[in-house]
Amino acid sequence: MKLFRSASVALLFIAVLPLFGATFTSNNPTTTNNDDSCDISLLPAATLLLPYFEVDLNAGAGSGETTIFTITNTTDVPQAARFTLWTDYAYPVITFNLYLTGYDVQSINLYDVIRRGQIAPENGTGSDVSPVGPLSGTGGNQDRDNPRLDEASCVRLPIQLPSVFLSRMQQAFTQGVIPGFSTTPECRDAGGAHTSAIGYGTIDLVNNCDVSMPHETSYWVDDLSYDNVLIGDYIQVNGAQDYAQTNNLVHIRAIPEGGTYDASAATNLRRTFYSAFNAAGAPGSDRRQPLPATFAARWIGGGPALFQTDLKVWREARTGVGAACAQYAGNALMSSTEIVRFDEDENPEAFAPVQHPLIPASARVSVSDNDFFPPATGGDIGGWMYLNLDDFESDTIARQNWVVVSMRAEGRFSGDMDAQALGNGCSAATAQSRAVGGTVTIGPAPNTTP
């Protein structure tokens, strides 16, 4: 069982003449870098997370469930972003690059990618086909390049994927099977089995348009970039049911930002988003902010409007660089510390202390599913959910998570919103609460600063 350690930090700010700046007492922040924060915010970032996607491969275009994501380059110089599709067991299946000219915006329909094997039809996103706007480059200087980007590697990016990759994606995201290819052996524990293609995506700023993936060591040494320049959003659409939900992607900043890979470069972050994948001897080299473990999520179920609430959940996997096929099965049913349902009369409902709801690395789960969430027994149709999605192991580091609340009503209205985090990615692991016989009082955790 993880131990909860609470620390109170008092900051004494000593004001002096502006000429001499600020001074901090001992045992307080050792940096005045305003970006040194574990708090996730909606600001330009170096990594974007799509916590959950779903694509109906059996429906025609525009008639079934699909997920569309959009990324934007907020700078006047070219950038490259590498999109990796992962199964719901966190197996990295395929990666492709998106080249963005200055102030460029690019949308990708995952139905096109997974069902048709097409990336941004009809023209693709390569540097040889992407138009350059009149304001791209300082002062409209269209010849201004990004010195950190190998643009030559981004020429003639693929639009149509070979059939072997198409088959690989479809089997991976619906059957959890990765066919053998070249020197890569078959894996039958890569994901769950479902009618639709399900998984999650990561979008990283990179300095070239190579094809390395996050589970390969070379990715962290040769490819990753550290400028906070990307913003993005997603739309999940179901044409047959007239539903659509939209939300921002999770914006994960590089701290410190800028520069290139340096194995000796330090980040003030205690841990990072890609900690499990960093190159040996260079922990924290991705410099990405970590995500939190505890959340508050609103729920409504039933009533005259026939409300439905689902939670789209992303969870940090147990696997990292060099994971064997059999290890991915461990990402299927990862335990959580505690889930408590409160109704509108403040009544808590929770599973017994020995029960730890099991949720994979990416999933959409209805709050009425009593295999995952404690049942509402008081008759109320609404309330909120306390989610401590740490994995309940005996260490002080909380496993990362993200939660999106997805609501529907009257068979025609729907929307997504992020659940409220009750701590940040640097908050210590939180033990079970008094709701299940523990000692912790449910509430906000300390938002630790590096």
Written description of the protein model:
- It is a single chain.
- The protein is mostly beta strands and 450 residues long.
- The protein has 2 domains: 47-277, no CATH class; 294-436, no CATH class.
- 6% of the residues lie in helices and 28% in strands.
- The chain has 3 helices and 20 strands.
- It has helices at residues 110-116, 163-175, 217-223, and strands spanning 13-14, 23-24, 47-55, 65-73, 79-87, 92-100, 105-109, 197-206, 230-238, 243-248, 250-252, 294-300, 308-315, 338-343, 348-350, 362-366, 382-388, 401-409, 413-418, 420-421.
- It has a 5-stranded antiparallel sheet with strand order 6-5-8-3-11. A 5-stranded antiparallel sheet has the order 15-14-17-12-20, with no helix packed on it.
- A hairpin with a 4-residue loop joins β5 and β6 (92-100).
- The longest helix is centred in the middle third of the chain and has 13 residues, at 163-175.
- The chain is globular and about 60 Å long.
- The model is unreliable at 1-29 (pLDDT under 50).
Could you give a short description of this structure?
This protein has 450 residues and is mostly beta strands. It is 6% helix and 28% strand.
